[in-house]
Amino acid sequence: MVTLNLAYTAPVNPSGATPVLTPSQVWVGLQRKVRKAHEFVPVIESCTVLAEETSSSDNLSVLREVRFVAGARSGTANGGGGGGDNSTNGNLVRETCVHYPPCRVDFEQNADGSTISNIVSKGPDGELLMTYAFEWRHPDVREGSEEAKVLEEKSWKIAKLAVESSIDTIRRLVSNGEIQ
């Protein structure tokens, strides 16, 4: 089994980016991403919220099902691990998404335990940053194999794309007035 642990960070407001996003706008965007993943991740075609509850510590937990476009579930193209749910459709993934306002959402894929954390933070000069930290589990891939090396290389590219496309989507939603 191979477990890939990696993280990618990007500035939310690089030089010249408009509009300049605030921490609260980014948080609203991450909350929306839980319910409308298809707006943020190009390989997701639908997202259905199945249940939600608030824990004793007041953290919202959302159980959702996301459907990936055909062929997107090979390797880590799905943004998660190698396993789907227990259904015969490998394009359907069930995730539990836990909110930690105002800076983090954790996504756990129920079938294989792969996790992704979406984190909003500030850098040493006060710049707003977005980091996605991944623990992608691939139970059918042998450690040290060529397949594992290819998966790791692909995972870094996907991590970068995931962060940058999320920032771009939030910026577009703010520009369109869908996020205030």
Shape: globular
How many β-strand runs? 7
Overall mean confidence score, pLDDT: 88
Unreliable residue runs? 74-88
Classification by helices and strands: alpha+beta
N-to-C span: 44 Å
Could you explain how this protein is built, in words?
With 180 residues, this protein is of the alpha+beta class. It has two helices and seven strands. The chain has a seven-stranded antiparallel sheet, with helices on one face. The radius of gyration is 16 Å and the shape is globular. The model is unreliable at 74-88 (pLDDT under 50).
Any descriptors?
7 strands, 24% helix, 7-stranded antiparallel β-sheet, alpha+beta, 180 residues
Layout of strands and helices, then pairs:
Blueprint: E1 2-11, H1 23-35, E2 44-54, E3 60-68, E4 92-100, E5 104-109, E6 115-122, E7 128-138, H2 146-175
Antiparallel strand pairs: 1-7, 2-3, 3-4, 4-5, 5-6, 6-7
Helix pairs in contact: 1-2
Briefly, what is this?
24% of the residues lie in helices and 36% in strands. The chain has 180 residues and is of the alpha+beta class. The radius of gyration is 16 Å and the shape is globular.
